[in-house]
Amino acid sequence: MNIAIDGPAGAGKSTVARKVAEQLGYVYIDTGAMYRAVTLCAQRANVATNQNTKLADLVKSLEIELEPGETGQSVFVNGENVTALIRTREVTLQVSHVAANETVREVLGIMQRRLAKRKGVVMDGRDIGSHVLPDAELKVFLTASVKERALRRYREIADSQNITLEQLETEIADRDRLDEQRDISPLVCASDAIVLDSTAMTIDEVINAIVKLSRTKMAEAK
Ligand code: DC
User: Fold this and answer.
1) Ligand 1 atom having least distance to the Cα of 13
2) Where residue 158 falls among pLDDT bands split at 50, 70, 90?
3) Which end of the chain lies in a sparser environment, N or C, as judged by fewer CB atoms within 10 Å?
4) Across the chain, which distance is largest between two alpha carbons, in Å?
5) Looking at domain 3-221, which of 3.30.70.360, 3.40.50.2000, 3.90.960.10, 3.40.50.300 is its CATH number?
6) Is the distance from the beta carbon of residue 175 to the nearest atom of ligand 1 less than 6 Å?
7) Are 6 and 193 spatial neighbours (Cβ–Cβ below 8 Å)?
8) Nearest-atom index, ligand 1, CA of 6
9) How far is CA 80 from CA 42, 58, 76, 117, 150, in A?
10) Most informative mutation of 34, 126, 141, 178 for ligand 1 (most atoms within 8 A of CB)
C-alpha cells in the first residue's frame, strides 16, 4: 500500500516517514526535497519566483533523483548531489514561493505519482493525501504547535545557522501561511486523513502510532 504523510513545516514528517518506511521495508520519498531542489536550481540560474515561463522551462529540464542511504535520503539533480545544498536558509526562505508555481507542481506531481506507482512507498509533503495520491491506503496529517515546531528546528540548526528562536517561529508561521493559502494544491488535511498532533509526543511514539495504523490497514485489506 501507499502511505501519505502531510503536515506543516517542522512537524517531524521526514524523520517519521523515513523511520516508518524503514520498519515496513518501504521506500521513503521526501517531496519537499524535490521542491527544494528546484528552488536551488532557480537561484543558481537567477530565475525569480514570479518568472513563470522561465521557472516552468527550468523544472522541465531537471532530472531529480532520490536515493535512500544509511543516514537519510540523498538528492541528485541532473547527476549532481545537492543533498546538503537544498537545506540552506536561502533555499528554505524561498521554497514556498517556488512551490506555489503551477507548472512546478504539475511536473513534480507527475514524478511523484510515477515513484508511487508500484506501491510500497511512504511519501511526505503537503498535498500528498489530498492531491498527489488521493487513493493512498493510509493518510496521516502530522502536526504540532508553531512554538514546538520552531523549538525543534532551533535545536537542529541554531548552532550552524546563527538564528534566534523568535526568528524561526516567525519564519515557520510565514511558511505555513504561504503553504496554506496558495491557490494550487494548498496544505490541507485530506478529509480521510488521520490527524496526529505530535506536540506532546516523542518521535518514537509517532512512528509507533503510524506503524500500528498501517498494520491495521494491511490486516483490513486481507
Ligand atoms: O518539507 P519541507 O520543509 O522540506 O518542504 C519545503 C517546501 O516545499 C515547503 O515550504 C512547502 C513545499 N512543499 C509543497 O508545497 N508540497 C509538497 N508536497 C512538499 C513540499
Assistant:
1) 1
2) low
3) C
4) 52
5) 3.40.50.300
6) yes
7) yes
8) 18
9) 15, 16, 5, 25, 31
10) 126
